[in-house]
Amino acid sequence: MRQFIVVGHEVTPDADVSLDDLPGAGRFDVLCRSVTAGLLTSHGIRTDALVHLVIDDAVTITVDGASVRRLNPDERSTAALLRGALERRQEAIGHQPVESSPGVELRRRGFEATLDAVAASGDLIVLDADGDPAGSVEPPDGPAFVLSDHHDFTDAERTALADRDATPLSLGPEALHGDQAITVAHNWLDTDGFQDY
Predict the structure, then answer these.
(1) Are 161 and 146 in contact, with CB atoms under 8 Å apart?
(2) What distance in Å separates the CA atoms of residue 49 and residue 42, rounded to the nearest whole number?
(3) 153-163 burial string, b = 16+ CB within 10 Å, else e?
(4) What CA–CA distance (Å, rounded) separates 93 from 154?
(5) pLDDT digit string (tens) for 92-139?
């Protein structure tokens, strides 16, 4: 199982997400692109992948490639799926999720609780320009990549990652957008560490 945890710093759970202005809703577009990069292939879907979107350190939306329906490559339809989860957030009780549509769940869970839940089933890898180059590292069996939106991780987030021994990994010399980094991470795994094409 491949997992991606993406932190959204500007979106709030009660955001009025307009499908006509996704950047204006706390850069909701960045989160949408992360979901499609994490789950979609050219003509299919990765059934062995999960994307967790941590919003405002208050809620986490999880999209499961094995069971999600109506996920398309455009930002607008992805935003509609995610907005539907936010609209039902009051139904989530504690860490018990509410399923807003098949394969889309929202939990009242912040960053650290999401890290802990995901770390139970995978190795935490923080995508960081100062990490070890991906080409020099053997890919783990159950990676959980952690990345931020268009903002850097906060000091508290970096501390939380360090406390959980998240492995820093660099995907190359150029800084990438989050969705691009997810695509490169998939390629790293698909090619056995860039070794097998």
Answers:
(1) yes
(2) 15
(3) beeebeebbee
(4) 27
(5) 998 799 999 999 999 999 999 999 999 998 899 999 989 999 999 999
List % helix, strand, coil for the chain (3-state, nearest 5).
Answer: 30, 30, 40
Q: Is 53 exposed, middle or buried (0-12, 13-18, 19+ CB in 10 A)?
A: buried
**Structure token pair of residue 170:** 């660099």
Q: Which of 107, 98, 44, 99 is nearest to 71 (CA)?
A: 44
User: Of how many residues is the chain composed?
Assistant: 197
Give pLDDT tens digits for 8-59. Answer: 999 988 878 989 999 988 899 999 999 999 999 999 999 999 999 999 999 9
